[in-house]
Design brief:
The mean pLDDT is about 85. Helix content is about 75%, strand content about 5%. It starts with a helix and ends in a 5-residue tail after the last strand. By secondary structure, it is mainly alpha-helical. The protein has 2 domains: about 60 residues; about 70 residues, no CATH class. It has a two-stranded antiparallel ribbon with strand order 1-2.
Length: about 140
């Protein structure tokens, strides 16, 4: 056997092995593709199932809050109610002070014998002045 024949024989063997490797790779690729399609279909089915469950969950007549959500809701409601009560208390005080101020101004008009039709009380300058008069 000559060197050329030995080389040709080795090349043929390498080509045969390469052909087998190529077939194995392509066959493996087909198997991988088939498996990937199966996994994709399974994932799509799971997503659709979850979507259906979520839609069913959203259509419930009521949803029960969990422990922390209940706590936060109650705490915020309590703070809101406290603030509302404080506002009402301050409004009552404001009304009382406004009435006391008006009573004092009325007493000043009586004390100085002037009419509200002709005079006005300027609270910034603390004077009773004739309407239209300039200070």
């Amino acid at each position: 056997m000559s060197v050329e024949t030995a080389v040709e024989s080795a090349v043929a063997e390498v080509e045969a092995v390469a052909k087998k490797v190529e077939e194995a790779v392509l066959g493996g690729a087909e198997e991988a593709k088939t498996e990937a399609v199966a996994v994709e279909q399974k994932a799509v089915a799971e997503v659709e199932g979850a979507k259906t469950e979520a839609v069913a969950e959203a259509k419930k007549p009521f949803i029960t809050l969990e422990g922390e959500e209940k706590f936060v809701a109650r705490d915020l409601e309590l703070e809101y109610l406290k603030a509302t009560m404080e506002i009402q208390r301050l409004q009552k005080i404001t009304e009382e002070k406004a009435k006391a101020f008006q009573a004092h101004v009325d007493a000043l008009f009586i004390k100085y014998g002037v009419s509200k039709a002709e005079y006005v009380f300027d609270a910034t300058k603390l004077v009773i002045m004739k309407i239209g008069a300039k200070l």
